[in-house]
Specification:
The protein is α+β, with helices and mostly antiparallel strands and 203 residues long. The protein folds into two domains: 126 residues, OB fold (Dihydrolipoamide Acetyltransferase, E2P), CATH 2.40.50; 53 residues. Helix content is 39%, strand content 24%. The two termini are 36 Å apart.
């Protein structure tokens, strides 16, 4: 029974780790080169990685126009972000409702290689060429150089809160197990032992 438990726990850790990796904010230092609006056709595989659409409009459509921010990092690698609202009740709970303002800020911060302007793009999500999905930008701020130090304080705080909640739940379960489950199991074991003795004629 050891290996099934290890496999099950490994799968749970992979699912939770993937969920946190997708949802928690990440930051990239890039140079914005262009912004555009593009019509995106959704498939059954990539639909879940996009927002639910504008409030008041259809929540499930085969395609719609989405803003994109095209950028290049200090190493010359392309970084493309989508720019969608998460809404007040969407997931992840970034409460982002200013995608149009963010697109304007991104267009204003666009620069050339000869005269670069470096910005920190805060985003969540993954980039997959195969699925045609892009991380969603939630904030942009200008920095002096691409060598700026970015320490993930928010992620550490969020993970710390999650760890405290899990520890509290584990302690509650231990107490519940000691006060409720263990006495019931012990009582069943005692009754079973008495029943075996009765059938064996030892009582």
């Amino acid at each position: 029974m050891r290996w099934p438990r290890i496999i099950f726990l490994t799968l749970i850790l992979l699912i939770v780790g993937g969920f946190l990796n997708y949802t928690l904010p990440d930051r990239q230092v890039v140079r914005i080169v262009d912004t555009e609006t593009r019509r995106v056709d959704f498939s059954n595989f990539n639909r879940m990685f996009y927002g639910a659409g504008d409030s008041g409009g259809p929540t499930r459509t085969d395609s719609r126009e989405i803003w994109f921010i095209q950028s290049i990092d200090a190493n010359g690698r392309t970084r493309v972000f989508r720019n969608e609202d998460t809404g007040l009740f969407g997931w992840p709970p970034y409460l982002k409702t200013r995608s149009q303002d963010l697109q304007t800020e991104a267009a204003d911060l666009a620069s050339t290689e000869a005269n670069p302007r470096w910005v920190v793009v805060t985003h969540y999500g993954w980039r997959s060429n195969w699925l045609s999905v892009y991380p969603n930008a939630v904030a942009i701020r200008e920095v002096d150089s691409p060598d700026v130090s970015l320490f993930p304080w928010l992620n550490i705080i969020i993970l710390g809160v999650i760890a405290l909640i899990l520890f509290a739940l584990w302690r509650l379960w231990e107490r519940f197990e000691a006060r409720v489950i263990d006495p019931v199991v012990d009582g069943i074991a005692v009754r079973w032992a008495k029943m075996r003795d009765w059938f064996a004629g030892r009582s």
